Amino acid sequence: MIIILGLLILCVQGQNEVKVSFNELESPVSNIYWCGSSVVFTKDDETIEQTHQESRKVLFILTDKGRIWRSADYGSTWLDETKSWEKMEPENKQLQFESIHISPADSRVIFFFGSNGISYKSKNCGRTYTRFTHSEDLYDFKLNKMDQQWIMAFKDKPCGKNDINCKDFYKKSIYVTEDGGETWKSALNYVRDAAWDKLLQYQLIPDQRIIVCHMKEGKSVISYSDDYFATIQTMQENALGFFQTSHYIFVLVTGEDGETGYELLIAPAYLDKFQPQPVQLPIPLNQHTFTILDTSEGQIFLSVSHKEENQRLTNVYVSDFRGFKFTLSLLHNVRSLDTGNCDFERMLGMEGVYVSNVFDHQEVEKSKSRSSITPATLELYKKTFISYDRGGQWHPLKAPEIDSKGDQIQCSGDCSLHLKGRTEANQNPLYSSQNAPGLSIGVGNTGLYLTQKDHEVNTYLTRDGGHEWFEIRKGSHMYEIGDRGGLIVMGQDDKPINQIIYSWDQGFSWEEVKIGEREFEIQNIVTEPSNMEQKFIVYGQSRSKENQLKGYVVALNFQTLHQRVCSGAWDPTMPESDYEFWIPKNFESGKCLFGRKIKYIRRKREAKCFNQEEIDKKFFIETCPCIEDDWECDFGFYRKIEGGPCVPIADKFEEDDTPDLLKPPANCKQTYMKTQGYRKVSGDYCQGGVDLSPIETPCPNTQTNNTSFNNTEIPINDLKQPTINKPQINNSQIQINSSKQNSYLWYILVFIGVIVLIILYKNKIINLFSQKPPKKSQSYMGKGNYEQLKLFSGNDDDDEAGL
After folding, report:
1. In angstroms, rounded to a whole number, what is the distance separating the alpha carbons of residues 326 and 256?
2. Cα torsion at 355, 357, 362, 367 (round to 10°)?
3. Other CB atoms within 10 Å distance of the CB of residue 46
4. How far does CA 802 lie from the centroid of its chain?
5. 4 SS3 class
6. Residue 532: what pLDDT?
7. Can you tell me the distance from the alpha carbon of 369 to that of 360, in angstroms, rounded to the nearest whole number?
8. 3-state class of 68 per DSSP?
9. Which residue ranges in the chain fall short of pLDDT 70?
């Protein structure tokens, strides 16, 4: 009886442990893929997301040696698919694969493209395969999101004699297939880059539309074709590259003289109405590089390197709601010369919150005046800043007061928290999840600057969108968020390890799990892209006794802990509820962001339970009066990183052709709208309160007998110290005589009539001016990654402009 009881206890204990599955591969992991995780069906204007339950746990790995591994049980066991395929090849021919592609038209369809012209595909996440062959020279395969059979690829071709179109960077040829790679046909030569139209899902866009940068009669042009280049529509001449999002298309063109500097054009993404406008920057200097940092929230963040000798220095600009006119948001943003990436991150799950690294402005100015301060020396002077208003104002990160061991952190004066960015090699940048609002993890240090010594960094976490940070572990770690923010898994990445740690309470407490007998270097920790799973994959590398570099994959299943399911989401105010209300705040701790007060329901930090329901929902509370945070610098103005008002950018950049935006227009008649140096942040909903919009001002030398203005002339000093305690519009009191009143009454009647006509013919007007045609009734799947897009890498002797 005692023996039976002992066995039961052991059984229960075994069930309450994390399930660990260790596997060794012939070489390190190059990338990992989830097959069949989701499919999006678009019907009319409705988007429905479904998940294939029978295939959602199928994973594929491509290793550094080009072999394919498959797991049908979320990484517990892996099969070498390449080995199986080789057995069916004549004389057991060895296979090697270059890339894996999951079809955006159906996520169950997956292609494995081989380097020797032998490839495989599957329509059911690997239950069955089809072998097909193609030219060994094909590369860079791009799948169409409307039809799983349509693929575009490239092939390099040598130039002929006296061929005016065959130039450096234009030696590609486009090939297309409509039968899933079985047969290919040549479509266009002299190509630099090409891509399927991002708007293929819309009804008026042909499914075959391809955008291309290519040579035409000796000139580089941007074109598109709807019939695989049987006919071509030229969009822009003298173009060096393009990038299209769901809202915009960016085109890079040479400067006016064709030799120095570059210009960036922007237009709506709908190509049939392509009318590009030049990006308007307030600093008229030669531009050498452009990096599109983010377009996700309606505004465009653009990193531009001007004529700086140190190409790691860039300026960050933010657009107005139209996307054409840009204002300076941040000076001296950190940029990588190797990748072109910038230390600029959006905090996912939060509206308008960004984190960025910059070089200290004082040290930058010293480096320009002293030859003793080299670009390498500037690496010692990096700082981290955060913005809660889409780049309107930037603030240092508040350093935590206590470390992960409970000891006081010595940090005073200008001391703050600094985090590693994506320009740091082999480091995790700031990480956040769309399904865990307010939660972010990063690696860095407290002090005056970001340290360059790996042994001085620690791991930090915030759960309120960056206001308060906690040191959750000493040292540098890889990390992943699962269970909608309820489960965090980490592993130290600065030395070989054989254990990981996990936390159910967002870093308050940690548990250790041994993941193998052999120590190895962790490369990454991943979970299913939705961050809703309790299953994780840890992979890394180590050298064997034979000095061969091996890959290791560890599957972690936390469901075997049998953690209880969270409850009380229906009423977070109950004491026994596992959930709470959370209201995001601005930098001044005001509970209004972009003119609205929003609250979320999310799991409490101390509630150790499985966050099964999708409850991280936000609710609108009320509209707020405008405050200074609702205004950003107007075109031609900028704000110092230390804070303060918006001042004319000419004060910073003393260029002869920097426009003076305080002057009235040349054709000024009677009055004009004079900027106070501010414009409302795009997408801001505030009403009333502080008003920093332009003020109607009389033109110089204009006699206005019937109208008198009080306090309308704004001197420079006022611009540097704007009054924000009450609306500025109240300072301009306009007195109008009776004849003027009759005139205004007539204008009001006409205005009312126009509004009535708009209401009566609303639908026709919307259809007439709509930028986007209706969507197609066809299935597709697209998963957007947050990437920074380099339109040009500015080496003086290299005009490479590909993405």
Report:
1. 20
2. -160
3. 9
4. 19
5. helix
6. 74
7. 15
8. strand
9. 1-16, 37-56, 255-261, 284-287, 307-309, 369-375, 425-427, 531, 613-616, 651-661, 702-787, 789-803
Q: 292 and 250 in contact (C-beta within 8 Å)?
A: yes
What's the chain's Rg over C-alpha atoms? Answer: 29
Please state, in angstroms and rounded to a whole number, the distance separating the CA atoms of residues 727 and 352.
Answer: 24
Residue 746 φ/ψ, nearest 5 degrees = -65, -45
* Cα(381)–Cα(142) distance, integer angstroms: 41
389 in Cβ contact with 630 (< 8 Å): yes
Sheet holding 535-543: strands in order across? 19-25, 549-557, 535-543, 521-527
The SS3 call for residue 470 is strand
CA–CA distances in Å: residue 577 to residues 80, 378, 506, 565, 634: 47, 50, 18, 12, 46
The single-letter DSSP state of residue 610 is B
Do 286 and 271 contact (CB within 8 A), yes or no?
Answer: no
502/500 Cα distance (integer angstroms): 7
Distance, in Å, from the CA atom of 202 to the CA atom of 272, rounded to the nearest integer, reads 13
Burial of residue 372, with CB atoms counted within 10 A of its CB: 0-12 exposed, 13-18 middle, 19 or more buried: exposed
3-state secondary structure of 523: strand
Question: Is-contact 615 602, C-beta < 8 A?
Answer: yes
Name the token pair of 607: 């509630």
From the list 547, 462, 457, 527, the residue with the least C-alpha distance to 494 is: 457
Q: Are 80 and 62 in contact (CB under 8 A)?
A: no
- The β-bridge partners of 487 are 482
Residues 639 and 82: their CA atoms lie apart, in Å, by: 57
CA distances from 157 to 72, 190, 530 (A): 41, 9, 42
The answer to whether 185 and 166 have CB atoms below 8 angstroms apart is no
Neighbouring-strand partners of residue 757: none
What is the pLDDT, as a whole number, of residue 785? 39
DSSP H or E run through 117: none
Tokens of 783: 């998963």
**Tokens encoding 779:** 């299935």
Take residue 701 and report the two structure tokens written for it: 């030398």
Query: Cβ(17)–Cβ(86) under 8 Å?
Result: no
Res 7: pLDDT: 32
Question: 536, 529, 540, 464: which is closest to 502 by C-alpha?
Answer: 536
Q: How far apart are CA 719 and CA 728, in angstroms?
A: 12
Q: Are 145 and 168 in contact (CB under 8 A)?
A: no
Please name the helix (run of DSSP H) or strand (run of DSSP E) that holds residue 695, with its range, or none: strand 695-698
Tokens of 501: 């740690």
Q: Identify the bridge partners of residue 80 per DSSP, sorted by sequence position.
A: 69
Give the H/E segment covering residue 524: strand 521-527
Tell me the two tokens of residue 135.
């030219």
Q: Are 204 and 272 in contact (CB under 8 A)?
A: yes
pTM of the model: 0.81
- Name every residue whose Cβ is closer than 8 Å to that of residue 112 and which is 6 or more positions away in sequence: 68, 97, 99, 100, 119, 120, 121
Amino acid at site 734 = I
**CA pair distance 343, 312, nearest whole angstrom:** 11
Three-class SS of residue 427?
A: coil
Q: Are strands 118-122 and 110-114 parallel, antiparallel or unpaired?
A: antiparallel
DSSP one-letter code for 397: B
Backbone φ, ψ for residue 361 (5° rounding): -65, -40
Residue 376 main-chain phi, psi, to 5 deg:
-65, -35
- Backbone dihedral angles phi then psi of residue 736, each to the nearest 5 degrees: -125, 135
